[in-house]
Amino acid sequence: MKYDTKYLPILIGSIFALGIFIGSLSNAPQTHGFLIKKNTKEKLDKLIDFIDSEYVDNVNTDSIVNLTVDNILAHLDPHSVYIPPSEQAGIAETMKGDFVGIGINFYMYNDSVAVINPVKNGPSAKAGIKAGDRILYADKIKLFGRKLPNDSLFAALKGEAGSQIELTVYRKSERKKIKLTIKRDVIPLKSVDVALLLNKTTGYIKINRFAETTFDEFKTGLTNLKKQGVKSLVIDVRDNGGGYMEEAIAIADEFLKDKELIVFTKSKNGVIEKTFATKQGSFENGNVYVLINENSASASEILAGAIQDNDRGRIVGRRSFGKGLVQREMDFNDGSAVRLTIARYYTPTGRSIQKPYSKGNEDYFKESDSRFLHGELYKKDSIKVVDSLKFKTKKGKIVFGGGGIVPDVFVPLEAERGAENVSYLLQSGIVGHFVFEQLDKNRNAFSKLTFGQFLNTINETDLYFYDFQKYLVQNGLFIKLGHNKALVKRYINAEFARQLYGDKYYYEIILKEDAMVKAVLKGDLK
């Protein structure tokens, strides 16, 4: 798989784009359509009819309608968007928290469907699929050598729960073809990556998005950590672009006392809806820390704002994205949808953290890039705040509106200044692909190692660091890694651990030297 350098910004930003696109969604009932003046609506309908019946060339009028909708929404705000039918099903599935399939993580490697690993206890794992297997056929559908797009692959592998599919796979480690019958089942899509102990009294929970199942996943993790005796909790919403605001509210309720304000929204007509904490909180007294960065948006900011404004915990990291708009999804009959901004939300002190978008969508989304140029990712003093948007918490702490959540404790980007692309590159898919290809050369060499033995082996060598540098060059990415060697090695080693042992081991390696986590564990942030 090659990576064209012209697509580098897309590559390093792809892991954040979906969440921020989803934004802060309301679970309120859907409306029945737009309230457009009758004459205007009739004019649009008539124009489409004229083109359809009279225009000299054949025209796909559906595509014209889509362009019209896109252009209308582009004049509103950056988060009011049209979602075509081809994308709507996938997005809805992601937010639902599960799907029906065979349960594998895969990618296209040399025109073959390569299994990175089967989902633990999923249908493929139970049937005997292993990491490194190539899926050649799904029933009689040929999958290799065809450069199939992802939607075609998904269509071939998904189906009704309980239905069967016969896979023909090539197992490279054994140099043989195998036929396996797999019964499709419901596969969970985790929104909470991991809940683990950082030390004997400090727990850590990583939330990657706010989907329908996020609160339940979070509560399960928190309950398990409490049983292990945690007194402090670190909630990591870095690079979490948001999702359902109700899930963020429910999580905030776990930490706030009865009747403390969590968030309020204000509609076009000035209608204000306030949401307060209940008596149900299960962690109202322990220390709380929320980790944020420049890609933490919407629902992540609702959670961070509620904790900060109620003086309940400390916000650690860098200024968040700055999305304070609430969307509601409205469906069309053809399977498409429009996600329309219907309100602004405000943190408990009354501040809107929405950054300006009057200069257009392109300027709006590039604002985060300007933070590199201004040095904001390295020095808190470089953060631009509007003095007129000062607010005070209950205890008199000054907080700011107008552009994201400013952390209580600033932690700079780990990559050396001028090498920001390195930090984001390490969190993109290319590291996973590199590690897969390294394992694929001799998977048996790792198969019998315990995690401890693996750590000793991989920490003693720089081989994979230098191979990764070569791998980037081979794929057209001319990024120098030398000044960030320790950081790069940590991510490579962690990815090896993930593919060999699971997510928990990935985070054990990543978090050990994580700058924000280390700032919390110093014990001077209480």
Automatic annotation (TrEMBL):
Spans through the membrane: 7-25
Gene Ontology BP annotations: proteolysis; signal transduction
InterPro entries linked: ClpP/crotonase-like_dom_sf (IPR029045), PDZ (IPR001478), PDZ_sf (IPR036034), Peptidase_S41A (IPR004447), Tail-specific_protease (IPR005151)
Coiled coil start-end: none
Gene3D superfamilies membership: 2-enoyl-CoA Hydratase, Chain A, domain 1, 2.30.42.10, 3.30.750.44
GO cellular component, one term: outer membrane-bounded periplasmic space
Keyword list, A-Z: Hydrolase, Membrane, Protease, Serine protease, Transmembrane, Transmembrane helix
Domain Tail specific protease: 175-356
GO molecular function, one term: endopeptidase activity
Protein family: Belongs to the peptidase S41A family.
NCBIfam families the record matches: prc
The protein, known as: Peptidase S41
Origin species: Flavobacterium laiguense
